[in-house]
Amino acid sequence: MSTKQFNINSGHQKISIENEILEIIPLGAGSEVGRSCLFLKFSGMNILLDCGIHPAYNGHMSLPFFDFIDPSEIDILLITHFHIDHCGALPYFLTKTNFKGKCFMTRPTKEIYKYFLSDYIKISHVKSTDEKSNESLFNENDLEISTKLINEVEFRKTIDLCIRNTSVKFTAYTAGHVLGAAMFLIQIENVNILYTGDYSREEDRHLQPAEI
């Protein structure tokens, strides 16, 4: 992945809150559309928000810039919805790295995730054959393993965790983007952070608009 060009300062934010530094580093989608993946660090917590691929690239070139983090130090991984630019790198991250934390998404997202990524594997195989390249990020077995590692979260039900003596809570709210899409309200100690992902306030006969 060292051949990829990446500006660590693109969208990198440091915010001082009560003598602590809230740090946000886009590992993807900082200055582009695709491979949405934000690294959030605050009060000893390391949280990854989404884990997508860039649809314009193949193989490792499509991944977020994982070189800039240590996956083993990520405590929580939250996935907002099933589109591949937000979850396409998840089978790779859960099976090919030393990630030891917990991954969460809503039940509808998890159910559709399996089908979307299965199709992606088939399409990627065709592309690699056409381009005479054997590079493949993951296979059906990796996808199956990753699905078993995903924890389901219900809308408006707060998950309360204590990690290294630090209290962290998060709650999924309706995002209105696609079926199962969630915004996550993250509470670390007494600080609230809302990660919207993709959201919509448009009225739709099939979907509730994003909650306010």
Short description:
This protein has helices spanning 84-87, 90-96, 107-130, 140-148; strands at 13-17, 20-28, 37-42, 45-49, 76-78, 102-106, 150-153, 159-163, 166-174, 182-188, 191-195. The chain is α/β, with parallel strands linked by helices. The strands form two sheets. It has a seven-stranded mixed β-sheet with strand order 1-2-3-4-5-6-7. It has a four-stranded antiparallel β-sheet with strand order 8-9-10-11, with no helix packed on it.
- How many helices does DSSP assign? 4
What proportion strand?
A: 25-35%
Question: What fraction, in percent, of the residue positions are helical?
Answer: 10-25%
Q: How does the overall form come out from the CA principal axes? A: globular
Number of strands: 11
Distance between the termini: 39 Å
What is the string of SSEs from the N terminus onward?
A: EEEEEHHEHHEEEEE
Strand order of the largest sheet: 1-2-3-4-5-6-7
Radius of gyration: 17 Å
Biggest beta sheet summary: 7 strands, mixed
Q: In terms of per-residue confidence, which ranges show pLDDT below 50 for 5 or more consecutive residues?
A: none
Give the class from helix and strand content and strand pairing.
alpha/beta
Task: Compute the average pLDDT.
Answer: 90
Topology of this structure?
Elements: E1 13-17, E2 20-28, E3 37-42, E4 45-49, E5 76-78, H1 84-87, H2 90-96, E6 102-106, H3 107-130, H4 140-148, E7 150-153, E8 159-163, E9 166-174, E10 182-188, E11 191-195
Parallel strand pairs: 4-5, 5-6, 6-7
Antiparallel strand pairs: 1-2, 2-3, 3-4, 8-9, 9-10, 10-11
